Amino acid sequence: MYLGRFLILGKTEEGNPFVTYRVSSRSFPNRVSKEMDENTIAIIPKDLEEIFKNTYITYNCVKIVNDEKNDMDTIVATNGSQTDIIADKIKLGLPIRDALSLSMIGMDYEKDDYNTPRISVVLNKEEAYMAYVAKDDIRIKKVDLEEGNAYYLSVYEACKITSHQKIAVDLKTAEEISKNIMEHEYFENPVTCATVMITENGIEKSLL
Ligand SMILES: NC(=O)c1ncn([C@@H]2O[C@H](COP(=O)(O)O)[C@@H](O)[C@H]2O)c1NC=O
Prior knowledge:
Largest sheet: 7 strands, antiparallel
Number of strands: 13
CATH superfamily: Inosine monophosphate cyclohydrolase-like
Order of helices and strands: EEEEEEHHEEEEEHEE
CATH architecture: 4-Layer Sandwich
Structural class: alpha+beta
Strand content: 35-45%
Distance between the termini: 21 Å
CATH topology: Glutamine Phosphoribosylpyrophosphate, subunit 1, domain 1
EC number: 3.5.4.10
InterPro entries: IMP_cyclohydrolase, IMP_cyclohydrolase-like, IMP_cyclohydrolase-like_sf
Function: Catalyzes the cyclization of 5-formylamidoimidazole-4-carboxamide ribonucleotide to IMP.
Radius of gyration: 16 Å
CATH class: Alpha Beta
Bound molecules: the ligand NC(=O)c1ncn([C@@H]2O[C@H](COP(=O)(O)O)[C@@H](O)[C@H]2O)c1NC=O
Number of domains: 1
Pathway: Purine metabolism; IMP biosynthesis via de novo pathway; IMP from 5-formamido-1-(5-phospho-D-ribosyl)imidazole-4-carboxamide: step 1/1
């Protein structure tokens, strides 16, 4: 099934929260995820001229906001340039719900041939939120993560936040999760993916 881009948000059986962003693409498959700095992961076309063919295919898909005062990292993961807007608002001190609401309604769905929705996730050791904005729908939802389970949210076919979109997770590391999601036969047109996990020893990342 072609879900397009999707996010997976969950907790390992050991209780480590994580998010995975997977790029699936029919139109622009020649892209990679790249760590730009310690707190930023970007999706970039291999041929940089493609950047000018479509404004929606190049963006930071992950930003980590460090709150040193409260010793907390907050991870923002999305399918577009809303990543930076959401992260900036969280950095300014807005509650996550407000940062997501303002950014998602401000950026809106993509004005492409498919009216592609924007999907976003925000996660730290205390709370987790999922959000989407489509042409005829918008939702921001705080979700309770359970050990050994994850929610998924995609641009096509599964653009919903519901307990029906839940999968079991029996993998331990960010690397195992990225590998499984890239190689999963059910998810068509794999291009690249990035997993970011919060562990007792800090942030663990895996880019494929
Ligand atoms: N975020 C992305 O990586 C991304 N890749 C493609 N799109 C948009 O979705 C349209 C359909 O792309 P595709 O045929 O690869 O599913 C593209 O024309 C583009 O407007 C994207 N925008 C949203 O998902």
